[in-house]
Amino acid sequence: METNANHDNCPFCNLDDRILKQNDYAQVFLSDPHKVAGHLLVTPKRHVEKPWELTNLELTAIFDLIFWIEQKLIGKLGDGFDIRQNYRPFVNQNRLKVNHTHFHVIPRSEGDYIYEISEQYEKDLFVELDDMERDAVADMLKD
Ligand SMILES: [Zn+2]
What we know:
Layout: E1 19-22, E2 26-30, E3 40-44, H1 56-73, E4 80-84, E5 103-108, H2 113-117, H3 131-140
Antiparallel strand pairs: 1-2, 2-3, 3-5, 4-5
Bound molecules: zinc ion (ZN).
Zinc ion binds next to loops.
């Protein structure tokens, strides 16, 4: 189950003094580079690349830290948060993309920098769901 093949060259397995808070199975540190002040990352301590390979203990530990961050920073660095986990095995690891599963916690506020720079231009991405697409996806998810 556990693979540490990429442990040595994984930046998130070698955080050293970057860790701001941790529990038994997960840890918190500042994203560097980051999108906004207070952009934090929460990772399992174990090197896990596929998010569905996280154990229930790791998931609970990760979300305990995510919700801890939200309560600490609400009203200070943002009025809300985006929680994001990207799984993109089609992109090679680089400075902006690390394979070790991680969750972004990004403080957000109305009309903030992320909205100004990108989200205001993404409104056209939203289209009404049609019946064929709904049925096709629902079929794929059937057991
Ligand atoms: Zn790692």
